[in-house]
Amino acid sequence: MKRRWLLPLLLLSGLMAVAQEKQLDFATYLSGVGQHNLGYAAEKFNMDIAAANVLMAKVFPDPEISAGAFDNGQRRMQQGYGLSSGISYTLELGGKRRARINLARSEQEVTRHLLEDYFRNLRADATIAFLTAMQQQRLYEIKMEAYRYMQQLAQADSIRFKAGLITETDARQSRIEAGMLLNEAYGVEADMKTAFVQLHNLMGTYRGDTLVAPVGDVSRFERAYALPELVTKAQDERADLLAALRQKDVSVKTLQLAKAARIIDLGLNLGVNNATQVTNVVAPTPSMNTVSAGISLPLKFSNRNKGDLMAANAGVKQQETVYRQTLLQVQTEVTTAYFSYLGAGHQLHQFDSGLLEEAKKVLEGRRYSYQRGETSLLEVLNAQRTYNDVQQQYYESVYSHATALVELERAAAIWDIQF
Known about the structure:
Structural class: alpha+beta
Strand content: 5-15%
């Protein structure tokens, strides 16, 4: 008999170990996400890359130097040797450099807004992960509470069976119910630990088998918003919409650069030649130095191909359409999140009528009657299941309501969540 109860007690002690983990409040957690999340840290490098691109856009074309030697037929005609050197430079015309700089700066602005948008989504996702971990923790506590009661009931039924007060079937049934509740607790425990590990991942840390247990007050998710104000704020401040707006500017700057690139550049060159003495008898000539300067113009036959301009023009129209689509998407997301939040609030308020307390009173009444032999074990089990279901639905409603607020504030580009 002792061995039969030893295993569940050991398992119970193992499950209780989670309650001894280090607690983590939401403010500390969110601060850790902002400072150490590796994905966000990698995204920040995009700002450095964009700043470097601006510097690269300011570069002037490099000059070219050349050097050479020539033989005027010295061996046969004795006309001497010569050396030549020169320097050339391409003078960009048409505002190419200014167009490159403007384009790089516009792209830098897009990168900045995209980084803000990344953090907006990361913050909301991290908050939902924190709430999910709290929900799983609460569900685990519900399962363990039901298991402990059923375990006590099974022990009492074993004694009552030996005393001849109940049948062996009832005693066996209570043990089976206790075992099934423990199995359910195992499943919830796995989900809970998985949710805890996800918190470490978002904080950019890994501590082996050491887990954190989230704590917080989830009763602080009541807000009163007006839908038109939310939509207006999202249109004004959502980072992805601002990025789409800046992307339109990038497409315009790309078109300007494409037009500037079709302007012919001016080539400047300067050369110095040195010829040695000519010693033949026909036309003896002393050594001499010559200086030359000139310009060159490329023959831009490639300008007949207007594919670059067509692509740039199409890009402008495309970004205009993308912006309108993003604007519509923002309005839709805010409206959808708003109604989801209202619906979640209505579901949660249903429990304010005392549904949870009523289920608990029914369970306590069934337990009392069963101990007095006035009701069957089946009725107790039904009352227990009903109470467990009501508790589970209640906490699912609590966390669904909290999650709906997170999604609403994510969509509307506002953030005041602390719990």
